[in-house]
What we know:
The protein is built from 15 helices and 13 strands. By secondary structure, it is an alpha/beta fold. An 8-stranded mixed β-sheet has the order 9-8-10-1-11-12-2-13, with helices on both faces. The mean pLDDT is 96. One zinc ion is lined by residues 10-11, 57, 60, 306, 346-347.
Amino acid sequence: MAKVLLIILDGVADRALPELNGKTPLEAADTPTFDELAKEGINGIFYAIAPGIPPGSDTGHLAILGYDPIKVYTGRGVFEAAGVGIELKPGDVAFRGNLATVDENLTVLDRRAGRITEGTHELAAALSSIKLETAPDVEVIVKEATEHRVAVVFRGPSLSHRVSDTDPHKVGAKILECQPLEDSPQAQRTAQIVNEFMKRSHEILSSHPVNIQRAKEGKPPANIVLLRGPSIAMTIPSIEQRFSVKSAAIAAVALVRGVCKIAGMTTVEVPGADGSIYSKIENKGAAAVELLKTYDLVLIHIKGPDEASHDGDLEGKIKIIERADRMVSKMLDKIDAKLYLAITGDHATPLRVGDHTGDLVPLLIHGPGIIPDEVDEFCERAAMKGGLGQVRGLDLLPILLNYAGKMKKFGA
Length: 412
Ligand code: ZN
Ligand code: ZN
C-alpha cells in the first residue's frame, strides 16, 4: 500500500534578498535532495489559505489538513491546550496564558515573570485546584507549556469564547478586566468567570512557595496569569473519518501539535526536537520512518525556518533548510514502502518582514508514476513553472491521497 509523507518547513518561503544577489534563502541553500526530488516530481505554487492571506501556523496547518479555517477557527487557545496534552471536550473555552509579574496595583512589571522555567508545573497545579465561587459548575484546568507559557481551560455548561483578553500586551499597563464581546448570557458568564479566576489566581500565586523562593533569589514572582486568545473547542471530523487513513504527526511546537491532535492524528514527541534551528530534526526523520510502517499518512513539521525568519537570522535559515535536506535524504534511504512525498511550507516568513506573509510557497510532490514537469530545483522561482500550477491548502491532502489510491470516487 502506498504511504504519504508530508513535510512542512514552517515559514520556509521568502523574498529576493539583495544580500543574496536577489536569491531567496531557499535558492541560496545547498539542497541536493530537494532539488533531485523536484526534478523527478511535480511542482507548484502553494498557498495554505489563499494568495495574499498571511496564515498563522495554526490556520495554515488546519487548511493543510483539509479544514477550512474560515469555518472552524475561533482562536489559538484550543490548539495550544491540545498541544500541551489537555484532552478537550466540545464547549471548553481555552486561553493562552503567560505567567507574569504584577505589582500590588495589578500593573504588569514583567510579561514573562523573568522567563520563569522552574516551578511552573507546581504553579499550574495550584491554579487547577481553584473552585470558582461564581460558577461552581465550571472546572478550571491549567497546564504549563514551555517557559512562562500556560494553557488555561474553563470547562462547564454555557461558556463562550466571545470575551476579551486580560493581557494588556505591554509592560507598565494594568491588567484588563475581561469583557463580554457579545450580548449573550454565555459571554457575560464567561467574562465573570475569567475575572474571578484572575483575582483568585493572583491570591494563590502571590503566596505560593515557588514565588516565596523566587523572592529569596531576587527573581520576579510569577504572581498572575495573563490571558489571551480565547477560543472554543469544536467537533470536527477526524482525518480518519474523512479519508479512511491512519495518520500521525511529529511536531515539536505545541500549537501545531495541537492542530494535528484536534484533527485526530497520533502525535509523537521526539527527544531533542525542540522547534529551534538547533533542533535534532534527524530524530524526527528516524521517528517518521518508523511511523510510516504503521500509518498511511505521516506529517513532519519543522519550525526552524520560521524561527530564524522571525529573528532575522539569514544564516540560521539557510542552515536549517540544508539540515532538512539531509534529513530527507537519510529517510529516503530507509523507507521501503511505495511513497508519495510532499514538501512545502505553511506560509512564507520573509526575513526582511520578520513575520508571516501571504506570498507563494513552493510545493513539490514526488512518487511513482508522477509525470515530472520542467522544474529541476526546489525553490520559489522554479515553483512558478511547476505542473501543479497553484494549489491551496484544502486541496493538498486530496491530491496526495489520490496519488496514493486512497480517494473515493465521486459519482459512479
Ligand atoms: Zn508557520
Ligand atoms: Zn511564525
